[in-house]
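Quick one, tokens below:
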């Protein structure tokens, strides 16, 4: 069973063809890519602030599905500048630690939004 949670996603006042969170068979939760935008502007000027903000956005979306950050099993990250990687990684480690963090892929890409980072996650739903 596929359960669509939340929505619609609005950008510029227009509904987008995106579901923010989907739960599959009550077991896996997929959170769509989140970008650190606030009132049409980047939520912070630097990668550390944008990373903290986007993780907070993900945490809010996970809560809608009954999950928390500790339930994340996979993270995909897009950075716009590889020079941001050390500061991103340090901020990420503050949240997820280094002992048992989720799996992660990090790539450099040109993003549609005027931000430095986009993140999406897969979590294991609590039963």
């Amino acid at each position: 069973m596929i359960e669509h949670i939340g929505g619609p996603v609005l950008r510029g006042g227009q509904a987008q063809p995106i579901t923010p969170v989907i739960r599959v068979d009550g077991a896996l939760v997929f959170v769509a890519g989140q970008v650190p935008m606030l009132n049409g502007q980047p939520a912070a000027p630097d990668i550390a602030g944008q990373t903290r903000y986007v993780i907070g956005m993900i945490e809010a979306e996970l809560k809608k599905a009954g999950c928390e950050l500790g339930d994340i099993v996979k993270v995909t990250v897009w950075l716009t500048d590889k020079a941001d990687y050390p500061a991103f990684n340090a901020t990420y480690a503050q949240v997820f630690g280094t002992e048992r963090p989720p799996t992660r892929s990090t790539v450099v890409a040109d993003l549609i939004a005027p931000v430095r980072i986009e993140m999406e996650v897969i979590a294991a739903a609590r039963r």
